[in-house]
Every structure is written in C-alpha cells, then in structure tokens.
Design a protein that fits this description.
This protein is an all-alpha fold and 82 residues long. Helices cover 71% and strands 0% of the residues. Pfam families: Cmc1.
Length: 82
C-alpha cells in the first residue's frame, strides 16, 4: 500500500508517479496481472528514500531544538540561582 499519489507532496517521486498513473490508464485490465509492477517497485523504493531523507532532516532539527532547550534551561537555572 502506498500513500496518496499527489505530486506536490512527493516532488522526488513525481516522475515515477506520473509513469505509474499513465500505466494504470493505458492498461486498465493488465494492471491487475502485473503490467505495472516494475513501476510500483520503483515507486515504493522512491517513497522509502524520500521518507529516509525527511526522517534525517527531522532528526537534525530536533537535535537543534533540544540543544536550544537545554541552553535555555541552563540559563534560567543560573538566573534563579543568583
């Protein structure tokens, strides 16, 4: 199962999404017998890569936020101690 195939949400995979949708339009019956399977596999791999990049970016951002929070807590603790 794949996420909704909206091009604006998956810019990395836009080309494969278009090919996959075209395959489903061109082969309305054969799609049930594996005509578009190769494109589906490519699409799944692309989604995994895209998700890994997003996950990495989110992790980096969370590390920055965590560092800022710790610095803020340290600063406020020092102010309270004075």
């Amino acid at each position: 199962m794949h996420p909704p195939l909206t091009l604006h949400k998956h810019p990395m995979c836009a080309e494969i999404i278009e090919e996959f949708q075209k395959c489903h339009i061109d082969h309305p019956v054969a799609k049930f017998f594996g005509e578009c399977t190769d494109l589906k596999i490519k699409l799944d791999l692309c989604f995994r890569q895209e998700k890994a990049l997003k996950r990495k970016a989110n992790f980096e951002e969370s590390k920055k936020l965590k560092e800022r929070l710790q610095a803020y807590r340290k600063e406020t603790a020092e102010q309270i101690a004075e």
